[in-house]
Amino acid sequence: MKALKNRSRWSSYQMLRFIEEKTKIGTWIWDLTATELHWSTGLYRLIGLDPQETKPSFSAYESIIHPDDHLDITGPLVRADGSTIFDRQFRIMRRDGSLRWLQGHAEIHLGADEMPHQVIGVVIDITDRKILSDSLKLAGRHLDLASDILGAAVWITDRQGSIVSQHGWLPLTGQSVADVQQMGWLNALVPEDRVQAMKVWMTSLRRPEPFEIGFRVRSSDDEGVAVTGRFTPLEDRKGGIAEWIGVFRRQGSDARALQDHVPAGEEGSGEHRLHPAQIRAARAMLGWSVSDLADVSGISGSTIRRMEMDDPDRSVSQTYFDIMHETFRRHGLRMELRDGMAVVGFPMSP
Fold first, then answer.
1. Residue 46's closest CA among 70, 26, 65, 18?
2. Does 2-125 match 149-253 in CATH topology?
3. Which PROSITE patterns did the record assign (predicted)?
4. Most CB contacts within 10 A, which of 50, 67, 160, 254?
5. What percent of the chain has pLDDT above 70?
């Protein structure tokens, strides 16, 4: 309590020094009556200059500003009403060679005679924020490019399913990011598909596992364009769901890569749905636990258990069976249907 009482008697100057020491902030004052410029300790620290070597001056300040970001603040003060004279972002080149992004804000303060007496400015280092912003923009461009190459629409949502960004959805539906918020994407669907799509969407988001959703998007004809979306969760550090990432493609345009890998003459996932006994037998032959299979295939353990039930859960997407079939095939096993019987085994060497 004593420390708090002492701090309560701090002067404004002490409080400013404390804030500048704990944050990346600097301040300056231009005294118009005495034509003097004052820099705070925090500003010196921010711009990388030594107060023992450099006196506050516009020339010293301008010498470290990036050539493309110079601003003439020594000209006539056309705003003599106490309003902001500038609020901008700019770059500086510190003497140690580092480039920093700063946010500068300055206002004119009037004296008792209603004339400008001071210009007070604050400068904030926003380099980290700028790097993050630029990285997000670059990632967005990458997703736009991927969307164009794949001929698909890409969604990124938060854990509740609210769309954070979308790429390729606008050309497909005419909807912007603002249009799809608060389930607004349902308006792009043909009316008959909206209720079912909403049910599938809300139900699937409750399960921490990949899912598919299909519906028809409105088009110039009455039937609409059929699309299929495949979503997978992105986990946070604690193992919970941080985001969902999904890709929508027009039905019929997505030749599944898994089917492309099935050698000619073999019965792949497109020809029969794996039998639960085949999955259990394949695990046993490879010496895998459910956890092992989950690690190799990327399918959650709970979904694998549902797939292995003698009375299989028909809500499990065919995509999971395709992935499972390909996983076993890559490890040397073959799945076949012979005279109505599901068979699994290693192929015999010729």
1. 26
2. yes
3. HTH_CROC1, PAC, PAS
4. 254
5. 73
d(CA 323, CA 297): 7
pLDDT-based confidence at 344, cuts 50/70/90? low
Cα separation, 228 vs 151, in Å, equals: 13
Q: pLDDT (tens digit, 9 = 90+) per residue, 307-323?
A: 888 665 566 666 677 77
Kindly report the CATH class assigned to 258-345. Answer: mainly alpha
Average pLDDT over residues 138-159: 75
- CA 181, 187, 193: angle at the middle one, nearest 5? 120
- The CATH T-level fold of domain 2-125 is Beta-Lactamase (3.30.450)
Nearest CA among 141, 184, 145 for reference residue 162: 184
Between CA 236 and CA 242, with CA 239 as vertex, the angle to 5 degrees is 30
Domain boundaries, the chain: 2-125, 149-253, 258-345
**pLDDT digits 0-9 by tens, 57-109:** 888 888 888 888 876 655 444 444 445 566 788 899 988 888 999 998 888 88
Tokens 């899912």 sit on residue: 211
Choose which CATH entry (3.30.450.20, 3.10.20.30, 3.30.565.10, 2.60.40.3080) describes domain 149-253: 3.30.450.20
Cβ–Cβ under 8 Å, residues 175 and 188:
yes
Confidence (pTM): 0.47
Cα 130 to Cα 271: distance, rounded to the nearest angstrom: 52
pLDDT of 336: 66
